[in-house]
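Listing S7. Sequence submitted for prediction.
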Amino acid sequence: MDTGRSPLDCSLLRDGAFVPLAEEAVCDYITWDELTRRPLPPGMSAADTWEVLATIRRFGATWFPIAAPDGARYWYTLTREAIGCLQVIEHHCRADSSLHLAMLEREGRRFLVRSQVQEAIATCQLDGVDVSYEDAGRLLQTGRTPQTATERFVANSFALLGELEELASEPLSPAMVRHVYDRLAEGVDQRELHRLPARYNLSGVTHPGEELTSSEAEKVLQDLCDYGNGVTGQVAEPAAMRGYAFMSSMGYWHPLPDFNGTVARHMLRVFAVKKGYPVLGYLPVSLMTREWAEGRVHPPTVRFTELDQRQVLAGEIDYTQDALTHLQLTVAAIDDLLAYVEKTRRRDAEMESALEGDEALNFRQRSVLSRALVRPNAEFRIRHHQMTHHVVYSTARADLTELVERSYLLEELSGKTLIFRPAPDLKERLGVARDG
């Protein structure tokens, strides 16, 4: 780069065209496409300006401690938008947050189960496993025995979500990563899985070299675990960003025989629980990421609809766009969960009013009726009711059969499974009006 200025010439830092660009680049990030449409400093090309802006930004960068195979170093900076996202995550995702405490209440367990079901399915889909959301949802909600390799893999992923706290009691280690892999692969004939393109990280970048040897894979796992445990990396790095870098790097390196994306996302959840952010352990971020990758999440929810990971300086790659997008998708998942909780609580309050004086129905039954009002075609099954409310099978069955006895639900047999549906005149019986 030749700007025509001597090395000690600081006039560029006072240039009327450059100063606003530099201020914006440091605080809000300027993409290459945006820069090419801006007025540039006299005598400087877009490439020159881009390099100078990157040089300034890197002074405040957070560096990832593991270099790429070609020696390139990765770094990112936190924009004002990113800092705002981190504040939202801090407020809602910590163990003492009102959102997490709501999940721990008996009425809140249904929200937790919903998020875990969504997350387990989307996680498998992002790893390229061809699974129908509807079919997998029915599998997990009914609790039936998986019949195919795909169903077993989804069921294993869902079961792992219940083991996070136990895993989080130990430091991250290659042995833990392999344990998660073994749990996911248990009973799965990988030859029978139908695979689609995977989305290991937001940028879609993966290790371009040959498959890692066993010793290389072990070193990568140890390096990643050292980073996750805080042995390496910058001390003040936000937990939400360290977790994302850990996850996306596993997808990049592929240190495991298979399922690197799914294992990486589970390890992110273990990391989140370890760091005191349990909501990040069950928040449906994978679902939101899948929606974004498929083009269904747009500004202003996220700033970028696709990422342009450019090598800004020799041997360096800036992944600020990735960082911001991940944080914005996390906030979008928080907003979605909060909105669902609030909407459900409003329905519950209306249900309480409709059933005022009828103290015979418990909160689980009222929850069923609340959902039945807004989904006239809904199906309720004993196993899912049992799982959602953490009760024994006999209690779950009694809840639903009593609603049949009161003519709120209809009961039918599908094969060997009892299915409960809303009565056609449920609204009239409850004396409420619903538009669905």
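Caption to Listing S7: primary sequence and predicted structure tokens for the chain studied. The beta strands are 62-63, 73-76, 316-318, 380-381, 409-414, 417-422. The mean pLDDT is 89.
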